[in-house]
Each structure stands twice: as structure tokens, then as C-alpha cells.
């Protein structure tokens, strides 16, 4: 029985695996982006229709990521020449410029580091994955999608904004939270603090569930 190669997944709240790679914008090193947030996303292959829609989606929202101090980086297991041809093809056919670098990962070095290869999905293609890395180089979120279905750029932006809000204000965010909405106050950790919670001026439901507006 043939043994399958096992690829480990990176883990949340640990340093994101560093790498150096060739891209459509020249060679990059992940650790050079410390001080900025990074959205690293993989796609199965160049010149495929679902991936084309996703690339255009990320491109059209790139300014919004930049306003969040976030660098978008794409990746697939294709050559640099394939990437360059595809980026030019998107410009010619859809009049959309791709403003972010695309990693050429023919040796699957980065894909293996980040657990992007799922043999039951495809042996030689990276699944649709998104990795959100904070400005200290820590992996904060991972999202995986099947080969057949495109991801939501709205959701990627939303999770970056939510994580940055949690970091800045020491709060959590509820389901489908968007900027301007109330946030969740961390629950008290002692019985004494739980007794006090009702009188602390929050939008109070119970000792463990309170919300507030951000100033």
C-alpha cells in the first residue's frame, strides 16, 4: 500500500512559517513584511475561471486592504511565466490590473509549509486557502475552500478588520460583525467581577454576555 505524504498545518497564534519566494514582483521574503498585516491566499491553477474571478475580486479590493495596512500575496503551483501570462491575460480580457505579487511555487515549498496540498482534493494543486498574518508575523486566521467554489473577499476583509479591532480595543466581535457595530466585552473571570458586571454600564444581557459601542 502506497503511503501518502503528510503535510502539517500551521497553527493559529504561532509565528507564520517564513519563506523566500519568486513572484511576479520579484523575490520576496515573508518576514520582510513585519509591521504590516499579510493576506496570503492560494489558488489551484492559473487560467482557470473560478481563480480568475477571485483574482479580480482581490484586485478590485486591494486599496481597502492597503488602508488596513495589509499586503495581499497570491500563490499557486505554477511557473513565473504562467503567472505573468495570466496576469496579462486578465488585463487584456477583463481590464483588471493585478496589483499584488503572485508566488511561483513549482517546488511546492510554500504550499507544504502552509498545508495547502490536500491529496484527496488534488495531488498537484493548492486548495483555496487564506492565511491572515498580523504585523508581528503571527498567524491569526485560516480559511479553506474547495476547488469548485470561489471565496468571499468581503469575508477576508471583514476578518482582518475584526482582528485589528480586537487587538486595538481588547474586545471580541460577534457573528458577522462589521465596523461601527457593537462589540462584545470579555466576560469576567472571577465571581466578584461577575457580580459587578450588571452595573458597569454595558449593554447587559447576563454576566457573561455584554456589548458596548466603541468610542
> What Rg do the Cα atoms give?
20 Å
Strand runs, count: 10
The main sheet orders its strands as 5-4-3-6-7
Classify the helix fraction into a percent range: 25-40%
Low-confidence stretches: none
Order of helices and strands: EEEHHEHEHEEHEHEE
Average residue pLDDT: 92
Q: Largest sheet at a glance?
A: 5 strands, mixed
The global form is: elongated
Which band does the percent of strand residues land in? 15-25%
3D structure, described in words:
β1 and β2 (26-29) form a beta hairpin. The chain is elongated, with a radius of gyration of 20 Å. The longest helix is centred in the C-terminal third of the chain and has 17 residues, at 153-169. The chain folds into 2 domains: 20-151, Glutaredoxin (3-Layer(aba) Sandwich), CATH 3.40.30; 170-215, 2-Layer Sandwich (Antioxidant, Horf6, Chain A, domain 2). It is 28% helix and 22% strand. The strands form 3 sheets. The chain has a 5-stranded mixed β-sheet with strand order 5-4-3-6-7. Strands 8-10-9 form a 3-stranded antiparallel β-sheet, with no helix packed on it. By secondary structure, the chain is an alpha+beta fold.
List keywords for this structure.
single chain; 215 residues; alpha+beta; Glutaredoxin; Antioxidant, Horf6, Chain A, domain 2; 2 domains; 5-stranded mixed sheet; 3-stranded antiparallel sheet; 6 helices; 10 strands; elongated
